[in-house]
Amino acid sequence: MKSSLSSLFSPFIIFISLLTACAEAVVPTPPPAPPTLNISGEAVSDYTLSFVAPDFNGEAPYYKHTETIVLRNIGEEILTINNITMDDFSGAKCEFSFNPDVNDADSVTRCSNPPIDMGLPQHLEAGQSIAFDVTYTQDNFGNFSTSIVIESNDPDFPTQTINVTSENSGLGQAESPLRAEEPAPRQAHPRMVLNHHQLDFGHVLVGNQINQLVCIFNRGEAPLNILGIRFLPEGEGANNQYEFLHVHWIPSVIPAPQGWGSGRCPIDIQYHPNVVGNHNTAIEIVSDDPINPLLRLPILGTGVRDNPQPPQPAPQMYVYPRQVSFGKIGVGWTRTIEITIRNQDAGVLSIQEISLAPAGEGINEQYELINTPDACRNLEEDSSVRFSIRYRPQIVGEHNTSLTIVSNDPLGQNFTIPVTGNADIWPEISVNTQRINFGHVTPGNASDPYTIRIRSDGPGPLTLQNIILTAEAPAPNNNQYQLDNIPLEWPLILAPRTELELNLTYLPQVYGSHNTFLVISSDDENESTIRIPISGSANAREISVSTDQIDFGEVNQGANSPIQNITVQNEGNLPLILQNISLAPAADPINNQYTIHNIPAAWPVVLPAHGQLIFGLSYDPVIVGEHVTSISISSNDIDEPIINIPVTGTSRIQTGPSKEDQENDEPSKKPPPEKTKPPKTTYPPTNKEKSNG
């Protein structure tokens, strides 16, 4: 049947090349884009929501799964979702539902297909979205299908259909645990619909011409095959007044579903009367629609010498930008430019086709048209539509082509936009930091590692030639840092979009400020050498004390112990301020048993780097017992602002001559001891001493 119909109508299929007229204009400020409904979801593809049940292996099946459908406004004006319904006549009411529990085995509302509950209508601002769930409950073998219809104020797609399908791979048959039998799913068929019931060209001056477009839509559930198109033989006298343009795509297939705003629309019919009179005919379109395989469209037109009717308004197409230049980008990179089409006159502008013109081998493959308006997109006066062209080159070189927009603009039916792009590869380096400052770290300690990421950001590979701590810095400075994960061999090649990760740690061993540079050498022509300043400080005031405890042992009541000397030293490289040295608070009878010697007369006292202060402590008990206290040393040391040295001593009552008395009673045996002076403590002069000096 198909082959015979194609043969019958093939003489009437006409091939016409595209016109080459051009029109140029710039749209300074396009109006807001109309509301546009976008449908998405993890299981949604090409307006089809698919459920796949597991293999039941011949056992009684039961499977329940929920998927989410997202409705988003990708236009700029408010999108209103008016209604969302599910097909009641699909024979699958027991499988699909908006309510996740309605088709459960114990549900009293099973197979009721309740309406969606989401407070419709819903109004979506630009970029906003709403979502709803569809649940599939399977309790029998077989494939099931239904459809969901979404009604909105989208001017191009006021009604959109989502096909919902399911399938399982279970073998054999098993008795349904919920019902004995189900009606078989209805067979999917295509359905052909036209956007006109008739074409009326009105009165046209002889010798002039006017075009109108006919759109074919597939409103069915299966692909629609367009087999042929022709003028009726009965209109033979008028047929030579009309002509088909741009029907080179017939025969062709229109997928399902497409909706009213989409479909194939390259049927451009031109009326160019060359004689006065009525020229009425019709066209027939043949398809594999099982209900209406042949649609007839009446065509009316009148050729006149003097047109008494006012001239019909004509559309005027303006396009911005007038040329598209992507400049130079890297191979594998992506750049996108938006294009706006606007109708600047009173007639309705019909966009018939948007395509890349033929170009050299492999050039058009570097480009992609995105969100192009569907065929038969009509634009009223001052309305516009936008789409984009994306440049994603895969090969090096210049890629020059052009974009052709075919419309019913009488002054420029074929509008051509030059498109240029240049793809290349080059190395490009990037580093995640420009400066590294570790702050203060005490000598002998380690900072947290700092991670340095060196990335190949260009379209071509990056060759790292070396990474070092600069030799310009003093050697001790570099020795204070540790660089880990350095490659063992040079050069190192990083592929595009890959990176090298290094760890730098500050490990100061000596006091001071340690400054250096991390130097990275590569084949990046713009940054062949990158120098990253690195700084760290081990400057500090560091207090140390010569003892951590003092124990005088036993001393007779009324006697004096030897003086024990304590040295306080500044081991840092910054001045240390001693604020006080005293016996820590204790009961007076205890502290009165000890004497501090050679402490400064006034506080505070400044110890320069590596300076020291020596003071003494003696135990001079006047009462019997154990005397426990401590010496407190306060300073501006950050880590140890107060140091406490425990001090202990025990006083006893003398019961006989002391050993010293016995020695004193025998002068001939041992010469009398020489008197010793306590060591002299040196510390910086006070301000008063400096002024007197």
Please describe what this structure looks like:
The protein is mainly beta and 693 residues long. The protein folds into five domains: 37-167, Immunoglobulins (Immunoglobulin-like, Sandwich); 191-304, Immunoglobulins (Immunoglobulin-like), CATH 2.60.40; 317-423, Immunoglobulin-like; 429-537, Immunoglobulin-like (Sandwich); 543-665, Immunoglobulin-like (Sandwich). The chain contains six helices and 48 strands. A six-stranded mixed β-sheet has the order 2-3-10-9-5-7, with no helix packed on it. Strands 12, 14, 16, 18, 19 and 20 form a six-stranded mixed β-sheet that branches. Mean pLDDT is 81; it is low at 1-28, 169-183, 258-262, 666-670 and 673-693.
Order of strands, widest sheet: 2-3-10-9-5-7
CATH class of the largest domain: Mainly Beta
Task: Supply Rg.
Answer: 47 Å
CATH architecture assignment of the largest domain: Sandwich
CATH superfamily of the largest domain: Immunoglobulins
- What distance separates the N and C termini? 126 Å
Shape: elongated
Residues in β-strands, percent: 35-45%
Q: Structural class per helix/strand content?
A: mainly beta
Mean pLDDT level: 81
Largest sheet: 6 strands, mixed
Q: Count of DSSP helices?
A: 6
Measured as a percent range, the helix fraction is under 10%
Q: Unreliable runs, pLDDT <50, ≥5 residues?
A: 1-28, 169-183, 258-262, 666-670, 673-693
Task: Pick out its properties.
6-stranded mixed beta sheet; 6 helices; single chain; 693 residues; Immunoglobulin-like; mainly beta; 5 domains; disordered N terminus
